[in-house]
Amino acid sequence: MVLAADETLRLDANAVDYTLVVAYFAVVMLIGFAARRRVSDSLDFFLSGRSLPAWVTGLAFISANLGAVEIIGMSANGAQFGMATFHYFWIGAVPAMLFLGVVMMPFYYGSKVRSVPEFMRRRFGTGAHLVNALSFAIAQVLIAGINLYLLANIVNALLGWPLWVSLILAAVIVLSYITLGGLSAAIYNEVLQFFVIVAALLPLTLIGLHRVGGVGGLVDKVRASTGGEADLRSWPGEGLSGIDNPVLSVIGIVFGLGFVLSFGYWTTNFVEVQRAMATKSLSAARSAPIIGSFPKMFIPFIVIIPGMIAAVLVNDVTTAKAAADPDFDYNNSILLLIRDVLPNGLLGVAIAGLLASFMAGMAANISAFNTVFSYDLWQQYVKKDRPDAYYLAVGRWATVGATVIAIFTALIAAGYSNLMDYLQTLFGFFNAPLFATFILGMFWKRMTPTAGWTGLVSGTLGAITVAVLSEDSLGGLSVGALPLSGQGASFVAAATAFVVDIVVSVAVSMVTRPKPVAELAGLVYSETPKETRTDPEAHLLPWYSSPTKLAGIALVMVVVLNVIFR
Amino acid sequence: MSTASHASDNAGKPASGKPASGKPASGQKHTAGAYDVRTVIAGLIGFYGIVLTVVGIVDNSESDRAKTGDVNANLWAGIAMIVVALVFVAWLRLRPVVVDPAALEKQADEGTSDGSDLPKQ
User: What's the pTM value of the predicted model, to 2 decimals?
Assistant: First the structure.
C-alpha cells in the first residue's frame, strides 16, 4: 500500500485548468438534466441508441472500455514492459471484437438474449443464474474499487490530501454524479469522453516525443535504458507474461490473453453488447464492434507510448525501474509525465479527460451492480412480487452500499503496483469460467443445468487455486509454489479456469439429464432458426457498411501492425 | 438506412449546406440540430481550443517552455482543437442527422441509452 511517488506527485492546476474541468462536467450535467426532463425529441432520439450513425455506436462501444484501467494500466504496462503491451490491443482486443461482430452478434441479436444472467437463467435455470449473478456483483464492486482508487489518486495529486480522505471525496463525487443523472446521457458522455481523452493524450504523446528527440530519440533512449532492447520488441514478451521460456510465453499470451481473457471479456460484456444491440438492424449491430476496432487499433499509440516516454524521461520512473524497486507504483507513470510535460491549460484538458473516464467507469460498475443486485438477486431470491417502487428503493440503497464497499475494495487495488496484474487476475476468476460455460452452453445442446453451475464454480475455484499457488497474484495470500508472477500468472489462471470449466461441464453433462430440446430455441445455436440470425437486407449494403468486409480489412490491418511492431 | 441516416445517404439527396436546426425545418425533414452529439463535441472542443489559444498567447512562461521543450503547446493544441471543432460544424451542416418521428414513436417507452431506468434487464 506504499505510494512510492506520493511525495512528489503533485499536479499544479490553476484557475484555467479548473475552468476546463468544470466546463466538461457542466456540459455532461446539462445534457443529463435535459435528458431526464425529455426536453427535446432529437435528444431522445440520440439517447435511445437506435438508428444512430454507425460511427457514434462504434465510438461509444470502445469508449465504455477506454476507462481508467486502459489509460492508467496500459501506460503503466508501457513504462514497465515497453512494446509488449501492444498485445493487449492487437492480440487481446481486436480479434475478439471482430469475433463478436462476425460470429456472436447474429446469435445475440436473433435470440433476443439481453444479459448474461438472463441467458444463464433461461439456459441452465436458477443454479447457474445465482452463481453468475453473485460473481458478477462481486466483480463489479471490485472493479469499481479500481476506478475509485484511480480517481482518488488524481484527487490526491491535485489537492495533496491523504489517500483515505481522497477516497471518500472521490466516492462522494461519484455518488453525486450518479444522483445528478450523470448516467442518463450515456451515449453523449461516451462519445464526448473519447474526444476529450484524445485531446489530452495526443498532445501529451507529441510533446513527450519532442522532449525525447522524436521517435528515433525514444528508441535510442529506451535501448540505452534499463529496459533495453527487450522493451522495443513485442514478442515473445517474457517481461509482460513473466514466463521465462519464450515458447511458453507466446502460448500464454496467445491462449491466455488472446483467447480466454479477451474473448471472455468482449463476448460476455453485455454493457457493451447491449449498446450494439440497440441498433436498428442486425448489420448495424454487427458493425458496432467492428467499427470500434479501428480506433481501438490506434489507441495504444497515445497510451503505451506515453508510458514508454515516462520510463526514460521522468526521473522517478527511470530510477525506480533501474533499481527494480518492487514497491514503485507504475500506475502513476502517466500522471508523472503529465506533471512534467503539460503546461497549465493542457493540464486542465488532461485532468478533465481522466476524471471523466474514471468517474463514468465507476458509475457504470455501480449501476451494473445495482441492476443485478435489485433484480437478479433481491427480487429473484429474497423478496418476490413487490411493487416496482420497492425495487427502485432497493436499487438506491444498493448504489450507496456499493459505493461504500468500493472504498474498501479500492484499498485492495492500492496494494498492486501494476493494476493490470490485479485486473487480469479478477478477469481470470470471473470472466474466464463464464466464457467457457457461455460458449459451451451456446453450441452444445446436451449441456445440462447441473453442468451449468458446477462448471462455473469449479472454473472459478481453479483460477483461485492457481492464483494462490503463484508468487504474487493475490499479494500476501500467494504461496509461491508455482513459478508464475504478474500478468503471466493471470493468463495461466484464466486458461486453467477455462479448461477446468469445460472438463467439469462435459463430465457432469454425461451423468445428468439435459433440458428438453424444445426449451432451447434461441439459447443454443443449432436450435435457433437461421432467419433470425441473418439480415435479409445485408446484400444491399455498400462494401464500407458490410460487417464482414470491414472485419476483413480490420483483420489485415491488425496483422500488419503486429508484423511492423514485432 | 430507414429510420435515420445522414441525410445525403437518402434517396432524395438534399442540397448541401442545409442548415441544421433544433426546430423542424420548413419541410418534413427534422434534423437533430442542437442535440446532435456533434454539436456538443464541437462546442466543448471549440471552447477548449479558444481557452488554450488565449492561454498560449498571453501566458507562455519560461517554466511552461521548459516543460514542453520550447514549443508553445497550448497555442498549437488550441488551434488544432478549433480546427477540429470547425470540421465537426462543417460535417454537421453538410450531413445533418435526420430524426424520423415514426422511429421515435416506437421507442418512446424504451428509456435512456444506459438502461439505468429500465425495470428489468
Answer: 0.83
